[in-house]
Amino acid sequence: MPYVSSRARILTLCSAVVVALLCVAAFAPLPVTIAYPGMTANVLGSSGGQKVITITGTPTRKTSGQLRMVTIEATAPNAPVHFLDVAKAWFRTDEAAMPRSAVYQGSAKQADQVNAQEMQQSQDAATSAALGHLGLSSKKVHVDLTLAGVGGPSAGLMFTLGIIDSIDGNGHGGDLSGGRVIAGTGTITANGTVGAVGGVPLKEQAARQDGATVFLTPKAECADAKALPPAGLKVIPVTSLDNALSVLATLNSGGKVPSC
């Protein structure tokens, strides 16, 4: 029987312990969520068989082109995410590992309630911003926004642009989109301020997958937006509703627009 020194036995035992710890680390669930590009929806059209924007109390117009809101999806709050999942996401452009607390607040049911509340607030602010821009009274004009299965505040900007395009277009008989597929993200306030939302790189992926060639992003998120934009997607920073409308008008006239 070969002789094994005490030093060799100790090294073998330590190595076994290290391997065991690495295995535990690799397969132990982490407080992390994996996010990836989600669905997009043309706010000028229908989603899930329902018209996204319905307006009564004022004339509306036919539109061309598309104004697409974008989303990200994420693993469920109770779904286990392991080190290997995080490592895989690190090397992909269509996945991102994010702290679970940054995506979900509480249980899945609580997260759904928060997202639904934020979506309603976003829709109310979008309606106020759009009607305020057009000089219309919310007492006479009713806007109904329907987008099943989507929560959060990040569609505010695109809802606002969609309402304006449905009623007034660019103010000169044309479309805000200029016939293009334009996507975007950003919160909106009743006075038209555009705010940051997060997840912009993944939303760019979703936008390009669904045919967008232009992407409007909050200016505060330009650093993330320009990190690795998909080929063929022009990324334009905006700070407000008026700024977004000005950018689209310049784009449609063939002028030079800002870029992240």
Automatic annotation (TrEMBL):
**Per its UniProt record, what InterPro entries does this chain match?**
Lon_proteolytic, Lon_Prtase, Ribosomal_Su5_D2-typ_SF, Ribsml_uS5_D2-typ_fold_subgr
Q: Which residues form the Lon proteolytic domain?
A: 139-247
Which superkingdom does the taxonomy of this entry point to?
A: Bacteria
Matching Pfam families, A to Z? Lon_C (PF05362)
The record's annotation in PANTHER family points to: ATP DEPENDENT LON PROTEASE FAMILY MEMBER
Q: What is the name attached to this protein's record?
A: Lon proteolytic domain-containing protein
What is the phylogenetic placement of the source species in the record? Bacteria, Bacillati, Actinomycetota, Actinomycetes, Kitasatosporales
